[in-house]
Sequence to fold (589 residues):
Amino acid sequence: MCGIIGYIGGGDAAEIILGGLKRLEYRGYDSAGAAFLADGKLQVMKKQGRVEKLSPLLKGVDARVGIGHTRWATHGVPSDINAHPHRAGGFAVVHNGIIENYAELKAELILGGAKFLSDTDSEVVAHLLQKNYNGDLVFALRETVKVLKGSYALMAICEGENRIAVARHKSPLIIGYGADGNFCASDEPALAGLCNTITILEDGDIAEITSGGVKIFDKFFKPVSRLKEPNLAVSASLGLDGCPHYMLKELRETPLSVEATARAFGGVKDSLRKELDGIERIILTGCGTAYHAALIGKRYIECFARIPAECETAGEFRYKNPVINNKTAVIAVSQSGETADTVEAARLALSLGAKVIAVTNSHRSELTRLATVVVPVAAGPEICVAATKSYTGQIAALYLTAAVLAGESVYSECAEKIEKIPALLTRTLEDLDMRSLAHICASSSGVYFLGRDLDYAVALEGSLKLKEISYVPGEGYPSGELKHGTLALIDVNTTSVVIITDEGLAGKSENAVEQVLSRGGKVAVITNIAEVEERFSGKLPVTYLPKCDKLLSPLLSAVAVQMLAYKAAAVLGREIDKPRNLAKSVTVE
Ligand code: M6R
Fold:
């Protein structure tokens, strides 16, 4: 999944494309590239690595038309050759998505004499455009997409034509209308500050963009008009507030995220109650951190509302022929609202008659457009690839969603309880000292996060966070499962972080501590139970958190494991905000 932007007008295309690519880096930073038409001739520049590496290559480009790309590699290693745009003769194309039948198309094109340079799936599109061209780029694109399988947002330019042709299927694509030209992009942030009005294209749409206007065709190639909407993306670049990384800044914004999410929930609670009336079963879905929040949401729903709830990663849910009917609600959790698997899971649920509740931090995204009801997470922009404040915001939103399902009195009680959390989070952030444990984890061969019930859900998230930004291997495990396999991995070089916040289960998790210690492994404990602290203090590193309502304790322990991951990554000198191989928004399968 990648970020793409195009421009045609009276302005400096190189400067506009470069600015847009910088704003799009959160969608991938393996390489960046751009293609321009200057005096009718195609110029293509591309470079492995961040957008800043592309910048010097664009100096001196004098063009009014251009398309650009930031890449998150799916097919072919990150390299100059595999960077987009891809070119065939006088045609250049940028692509976000995956062409699933590229291998057979490539074989056919090679038989026809095409010479491929890259290992990407996307290069076939450039060759198909060349093959299908009869003097009309939009027609060539239309013929090309007829044979593509998979997902795509495509932008193409060619020598001899002063326009950009675009097409979308399953990958988002928007058009922007500016004062001095028109734009196309994979999402709104790319166009922040460039135009006030946008159109979100629909699946199957093809469009022609010139400096004077935009023509849109539907999947039957019939001219259509699509809604014009205000561009809500803000151009102000977000500062670090004195923090060395966005991750730390965003972690420190956790109290605000929970507070604002709880406040925003008031605006949606009545429609949520109405839409969920009569629902007999709930399936929660999401990917990565959002899935971990969903696991906690499932517990809340079953605990408060006693409605059977299941949880499935979106990439699995989509392909399992789920049993769904109009008495089912699917809660799709996603920070970005653009994650391909989550969006497609929501689409599938709707097609089977379910209600879809989107719990998202992105209030205008593919997921929000699809959803029956949107439960806002009000975490604010999250720049770091690793999710922090959005995860805690999601937990808060799911807590209140579950409470609403249980009726007004449970809801009022829960709303009061969550009001106390931001102050406790502030205290937690002030008191947390994860430095020495971070050093231990950074030098461990593996770090295992253990817990039971809600602590287990947080253990999964702690493990993901540590792996994602420090690259230290490990797993999250239910404490009770340790002895069924993972114990074999424990030795003096491993560290186990045991989360214990449930008094009823504390004894059981303490057993896990002893089992690891007796196999020579290092252990640390994160707890808010005084007796647990007393028992291990002085013998092991113990992080003691403020006491809070049992069901809300994940909000505090989440901050502890996130901070631990952050500090460990800092010890190892990792590039914390942009970890290797990852991207913030995962818009491909
Ligand atoms: O935007 P989403 O919440 O749908 O993203 C889902 C995952 O890609 C995301 O949570 C990922 O796991 C994070 N990088 C974890 O920190």
About this structure: DSSP finds 20 helices and 25 strands in the chain. The radius of gyration is 25 Å.
